[in-house]
Amino acid sequence: MLYDNKIWVGGTDNKCFIEPSKANRHGLIAGATGTGKSVTLKVMAESFSDMGVPVFLADVKGDMSGICARGVNNENMEERIAKFGIENFEYKAYPTTFYDVFGQMGIPMRTTISELGPILLGRMLGLSDVQRAVLSMVFRIADDQGLLLLDLKDLRLLLTYIGDHADEYKLTYGNISTATIGAIQRNLALLVDEGAESFFTEPAFDVNDFFKVDSEGRGMINVLNATELFNKPLLYSTFLLWLMSEIYENMPEVGDLDKPKMVFFFDEAHLLFNDAPAFLLEKIDQIVRLIRSKGIGVYFISQSPSDIPDNILAQLQNRVQHALRAYTPAEQKKIKAAAGSFRANPAFDTEAALSELAVGEALISFLDEKGTPGVVERAFILPPQSFIGSAGFEKIQEITDSNPLYEKYRLSVDPESAYELLMAKYEGKSAAAAKAEEEKQAIEEEKAAAAEEKAAEKERLAEEKAAAAEEKAAEKERLAEEKAAEKERAAEIREQREKDRQEDRERRIEEKERAAELREQREKERQEDRARKEEERIKREEEKARKEAERAEAKAKAEAERAKKNSPLTKITNSAMTAAGRQVGSSLVRGIFGGLLKK
């Protein structure tokens, strides 16, 4: 986002800006997976576009294409926008041109063998000094004889032709070993296996088509779909080498500008440098060192600063470092090294902060107006204004179809070149040999005709005999087939009967199981009924015993009342009778309940 004509990348109280005049001093966006590198890349690319600076970015994961569509508002975005206090935040799409070396998800990008040249091609293929010398000789022969080297079939056929006529070129160009020619052919075959035939052809791409702005003055964002290309390391390295060389060689020296002419972003840079040929690393180092003076900025995006070779890393002066994870001593050393590359801020511990940063938060250090690295700041990255994620095939295709460059590069062409001219030579030499061969063949055919006529009669007799034998064999085969069919039908009948018997057995078993379940259910119901009746009988016995006890107690009370009116002896007698009545009642109750308990 632009703020006072500067690129505001992150931070609220201490805003972190990229000075436009120092943006061509290159940069690095690093951090562990899922920490927010892609969003940082998108925010920076959008800002350069708003400034009128064209951008090129290699989209390795396929998630950068959403930059062509407006962002979508949601709760997280609103919270993030509010955190920065941005008023009138605008979601918007950016002018985008999609490219694809294979022409599937964008405008095809191509070049020719001649434009790549023998030196770059030879070093890229990892050829030895002798092999590179022979390859340069082949290019020189092509120039001297007016043979255009446009695609791989041109170069491969020329190599074959020179190998076949090595003696003709020996005195003029030097010795040419067939073994060397074969070695070069093997290395070219690797490029063919990776689909390079679609890359080396015309029309060749003009890098000046990158440097475009839309009607509003916003720089074009050129997105290379590299999801498939990255799975072909040799072709990808060849492509990058050609692209960076073309940019470097075609751009004039401009010195320090108010803003860069173009900015390149290479996502997943660790994949670029892993197992890269030494020459590619040397070439990238050379271009990164010198391309600044041509107004071009290069930014690498990777998981850790240690993924970038030290000599290249030292030239990346605008840095955004997201969180790093350290689970091993080696990873802890990387964190310490990353922290040591920043100009310390007394407000916090840089090394500790690298492990504490939240998603979308980063340590930021940009060059100031004087070109001095700023003190590292801990800050959150601004939200992007375009869509986060992939735009989808249909959207990409729609934008590509409407781009005028699509018509320019859509169809590959195959003009007359070395392949066609050499094939004509091969065909001319073979024509004379073919005529002599035809005459010889005619004589042999006359001799053969008589022999064929004699053989034909013999063959006819043999065919008649064979026909009779075939007819007899056919009848025998028919009878055998009928017999086999009858056996098969009998087997099918037996199989069906056995199947019916099995189904009958299973049905009877199921019926027995259902009858057993029914008996079990009935027995369960009878037991439950007996238990219910027994419970009711016990309740009736208890009620009877209770009532008898009440009657006995009432009778005892009545007798006690009468005893009070009689003599002491009578009282004593009545008291004894009352006690006896109570004892009888208790015994009666115990007898009843004891009997129930025994039952």
Blueprint of the fold:
Blueprint: E1 2-3, E2 6-10, E3 16-18, E4 27-30, H1 37-50, E5 55-59, H2 75-84, E6 96-100, E7 107-108, H3 113-116, H4 118-124, H5 129-144, H6 152-164, H7 166-173, H8 178-193, E8 221-225, H9 233-250, E9 262-266, H10 269-273, H11 278-290, E10 296-302, H12 310-313, E11 318-321, H13 329-340, H14 350-356, E12 361-365, E13 377-380, H15 393-401, H16 404-409, H17 418-564, H18 568-598
Parallel strand pairs: 4-10, 4-11, 5-8, 5-9, 6-7, 6-8, 9-10
Antiparallel strand pairs: 1-2, 2-3, 11-12, 12-13
**Compute the gyration radius: what is it?**
49 Å
The proportion of residues in beta strands is: 5-15%
Can you give the mean pLDDT?
A: 87
Main sheet properties: 10 strands, mixed
Describe the structure.
The protein has 599 residues and is α/β, with parallel strands linked by helices. Helix content is 57%, strand content 9%. The chain has 18 helices and 13 strands. The strands form two sheets. It has a ten-stranded mixed β-sheet, sandwiched between helices. The two termini are 96 Å apart. The model has no long low-confidence stretch (mean pLDDT 87).
List the keywords:
599 residues, ten-stranded mixed beta sheet, three-stranded antiparallel beta sheet, 18 helices
Question: How would you summarize what this structure contains?
Answer:
The mean pLDDT is 87.
